Amino acid sequence: MRERMKKMFKKMLTIGLSLIVLLVPLSGCATTPSQSQSQSYEKTMVTARTEIWKAISGGGASSATVAVMDNGKIVYEEGFAMANRGDALGVNSSTQFNIGSVSKIFTAAAVMQLVEEGKVDLDKPVVDYVPDFTMQDSRYKNITVRMLLNHSSGLPGTDIYNGFAAAEDPDFLTNFMVYLANSNLKDDPGVVSVYCNDGFTLAEVLIEKVSGQSYAEYLNQHIFSKSGMEDSSCYFKPDNPNIALKYNNDDGSALPAEYVNLMGTGGISATAADLCRFGNALLTNKIMTAESFSEYTSPQYAPETVPAGTPITNYGLGWDMVSVADFAEQGIQVLSKNGGTLQFNSQLYVLPEQGLAVAVIFAGTADTTTITNAITQALLEEKGALPGSETSAAAAPKPAAIPDQLGSFAGYYGANGSTIKVEFDRQNNTMNYKKFNGSEFVSSGTYAYMDDGYFYLPSGNRLSFSDSFGQKLILQTLPTADYSLVVAQGIASVNPVDTQNFANKWWIPTNFSAIDLNTFVAATGSIPELPGFIYFGGDDTFTPYRLKDGNSAEMILPYARDLVESRISEVNGKKVLNMMSYTFIDAQDVAVLAKDETISIAKANENQVRKLDAEGTFGVTMPEGSRVIIFAPDFTLSYDSLYAVSESVPVTAGSYVMFIGNEGDQFPYQYSF
Question: Can you tell me the distance from the alpha carbon of 370 to that of 374, in angstroms, rounded to the nearest whole number?
Fold first, then answer.
């Protein structure tokens, strides 16, 4: 349960000779193709099998699927392990997996089609097409359609309420618009490109408003059908038994099937082969014109994105990268989109000049980028597609003295999930990289400075500093190429606002739904070395926020993704914290479960929470469509009926029980101690 909670919180694809793909069972749980007489893909297949089985045997993933398309032909397609262990169903060519954020390039493609029809202008304000879009921050009127698709809108990040769920939520978009109406921007629109799911959910709304169709209907008619994607849909296909389930790493139990209500940002279900078919449809102008494709796949990131010219995430419209560094260094353009949900991870590569596409999807956790890189490298080598060039190894960097000008970069930095303190040791020419742990800053690494201007991490990644657009930034650069990304942003420490209302607090949500897979509590606290700043997080995450006043915190990290605003108000004499679409109460205000107390839900979306004052066992008779969650005294998840219903469970004194149901529901319980 603790591992599941941690992942929940942090959580944040083609063309050649005629080839018949013969799908036959492999060890009862996989599929494999026949071979082409004139072109071997043996190295590609061996690489894929080696890397994918390594990931599955490592315990993070339950199953996987891979496909390679070469000039319009699926030349390799294979499934790995069991899609459904209970039914002994192995992954086959039609098994659906959630593709997560790979969905974004479908959303962007749909917008480009509307642009071609003259119904949308990329550079006109979103409010022209979605008149009911509003925010607390008046700058929202300056957000253009393009900014939604290139991550430069300045929207906070991700409203996750029911975003990943055990069922469809028909009210998700309505609630999302309410969330926006209560939110501010984290930056001026169009200034910095930072990954933003909210932009694509709003683009989904725009597509529905302009086309007059639901997002799912639009994609079925205008993209899936045109691409030959017969095994793709928004959500899993209704009543489809052939879906990949994720299994718990600890006990092997199946997790609830995942429905991604963040449809436009991550809600498509597909096969690896269908992703390749989409890649081929793009290359053959079945989805959009060549002119539109050029716009769709050209670098689109905003002007203050750092570093200019070589950011790792060189966004297109929907694409993470329109030039993957490892292949750009070899003279090959690779379009890339990665996806990740609570239960799935995916990667799609499209190589326009070579007419290739590679797709990999896992049920579970896997490094899909590294795996897809290896498969694509093997494919290019096998086809002889890499341009010959003479390369000379760069001289190994040597230790050097830290330049005087770097001294000004010592100090405090913020990132999503971390508050950081940087110190320089001039005697040993090292940087001490410290992270806040809830009470103090502790070292997470000491890195040596080298004569090429970088501090080197054991992984080979390199850290450097930049003073750009008035911001002090920490950059991380790849080991093999000079592509970088911002990993932290400097924060000032002068802000004399009392942090008392946020100090050392745990907050328990009172409006969890019965289907929400994001199960978490939140923590806030002061940062002693940064007066007037608080952290917001939970489970070892400590994102810094600056207080506007004693009851509200503001976003201060325009270069960080997935930020939230938190506001404290008083309801019936007790403190209530609002964040995204969630409402929390102070754990200190939770009432102890009284003897013979009747637990009932007085109003929808207002759950009952009680504290247990003795060790014992606890059981509940649950109404239909309800849910019970128990948090241990240290706020780790100890029981959730969504995953397994038990007649009674052991509880520790100081545990918290959350009763989730519909208006009027009652929860008879048995508490023995």
Answer: 6
